[in-house]
Specification:
Helices cover 80% and strands 0% of the residues. The chain has 471 residues and is an all-alpha fold. The chain has one domain (18-456).
Length: 471
């Protein structure tokens, strides 16, 4: 006899019934804090590698992550599609549809990682490093790092999937707790593996990748056990249909694929922008400055802004699922205000204490330091634009309009910044400041277009529905 379904905890109905400011903040602060704490692993990676390997190691990690994100974002796009469905079903108080959606996202991502990401990523890594004009000394450090990330990334992906599922269902504190454990494990492993300890040799840059994938794997095993335990708001149970549900999988791709294309566009834009950086006269130093100032220090703004985006998507989707679209509009405006305040505070530190921030990464080379400080000045302004863009992107994606952000990204992350760099390089001399300005203009364009598209409110008419589960 089939066991009765274990539905998990009840959904938090205050998200669709309580004050909108509280609803947004309830999901935003744990997500932002999780992103900031989780980002500490990148800080530790770069700080330790910078001090024990040098700025070449920093460049290797930054280049590897830029490439890795281009590929991994396609699989992660399934999680955006999952988030759209989960938020709608949670808003409509449909527990079993939430559980079915999360399981199908899990099943699909397993297949993609095992049969696509790992084998192709391992083989293609050298070609990808050549594509971004990584210096020869950078490639030596980056190749083993990148291959480890491609082959053993499933634990980290599962962590991202579960965090998105729980957050979309209204529980942002459980992903925060998991994120803290993941970060502590990662830092502990990196301290051991990067520099060595006792009989364990120093693996340098490769040790940073080893620590990341081991920590992700351990946390994901625990998370799967909790899912089957039925104590979270999302749960797997014996009465579920374990076979692929092609209707749900089609919906995952329907809403997720545009986000995947968007992510690929953004990261391809980043890779080609990095290639422009690599074409400069001081390519290694400029790449190191780009990695530390843009991919690390600027991440303090993007971490909080992505947290705002995730909270906005969940609140928007749940309220639309509950038949309350006016609350969706209020949520996006509120989230944007939170993001602007935080971006202004963090951006001020880029202007006031740049040397202190760069000192954390062992940035002693005078050329690297000068370029990094210059870039931070541009990013202090750019952060205001990106946080608005991400808040409104969350509103669009959470309601199911994942195509508009895709088109916006093509314009703002590819055509404008890369076109600007190409024209300057073709008809004049491309300087670092030209690339930094292209970044700012791209973020400004993204913010402007995101706000304008959301205010058209075409997302009000997007429908989400799946059939009943088979016995």
């Amino acid at each position: 006899m089939t066991a009765p379904p274990r539905r998990g905890k009840r959904f938090d109905r205050s998200i669709v019934e309580g004050p909108i400011r509280s609803a947004v903040w309830k999901l935003a602060w744990p997500t932002m804090l999780q992103n900031i704490i989780g980002g500490a692993q990148g800080i530790v990676d770069h700080a330790m590698v910078g001090n024990y390997v040098g700025y070449v190691g920093n460049a290797a990690i930054g280049v590897s992550w830029q490439i890795f994100l281009v590929v991994i974002v396609f699989i992660s796009s399934l999680f955006t599609g999952m988030g759209v469905l989960v938020a709608r079903f949670a808003g409509a108080d449909q527990h079993e549809n939430v559980n079915r959606t999360v399981y199908q996202a899990f099943l699909t991502s397993v297949m993609l990682v095992l049969f696509v990401l790992a084998p192709i990523g391992y083989v293609a890594s050298p070609v990808l490093l050549d594509l971004v004009n990584a210096a020869p000394e950078v490639q030596v450090e980056a190749l083993p790092y990148l291959r480890i990330m491609f082959v053993f990334s499933f634990g980290m992906l599962l962590f991202f999937m579960l965090g998105g599922a729980l957050r979309s269902a209204g529980d942002a504190q459980t992903p925060l707790r998991l994120g803290i454990v993941l970060t502590v494990l990662n830092i502990a492993l990196n301290v051991i593996l990067i520099r060595g300890l006792g009989p364990i040799p120093a693996f340098g840059t490769t040790g940073a990748a080893m620590g990341t994938v081991i920590a992700g794997g351990l946390v994901s095993v625990y998370a799967l056990a909790k899912l089957f335990g039925g104590t979270w708001v999302v749960a797997f149970h014996r009465g579920m249909n374990w076979r692929p549900d092609w209707e749900i999988i089609a919906q995952l791709f329907r809403f997720g694929l545009p986000t995947g294309i968007q992510g690929v566009a953004m990261n391809v834009g980043g890779v080609f922008l990095l290639a422009f950086v690599g074409s400069l006269a001081v390519s290694a130093q400029a790449q190191a400055a780009y990695v530390v100032s843009y991919t690390q220090l600027f991440s303090f703004i993007t971490w909080t802004s992505v947290g705002i985006m995730g909270a906005t998507a969940a609140v928007s989707g749940q309220n639309l699922g509950a038949g309350r679209p006016d609350r969706t509009s209020q949520a996006v405006r509120t989230a944007s205000g939170f993001g602007l305040l935080l971006a202004a505070v963090i951006g001020s530190s880029f202007l006031l204490i740049p040397n202190v921030l760069l000192g954390l990464f062992g940035m002693e080379d005078p050329v690297v330091r000068e370029l990094s400080i210059e870039l931070l000045r541009y990013l202090s302004v750019s952060g205001l634009f990106i946080t608005v863009a991400l808040a409104y992107t969350g509103g669009l994606q959470g309601t199911g309009d994942t195509k508009s952000p895709m088109y916006i990204s093509f314009v703002s992350q590819i055509f404008i910044p890369l076109g600007m760099c190409f024209l300057i390089q073709t008809f004049s001399t491309l300087d670092p400041a030209d690339i930094w300005m292209a970044i700012v203009i791209g973020h400004f364009t993204r913010a402007t277009l995101s706000v304008g598209v959301f205010r058209r409110e075409r997302w009000r008419d997007i429908e989400v529905a799946i059939g009943s589960a088979e016995a």
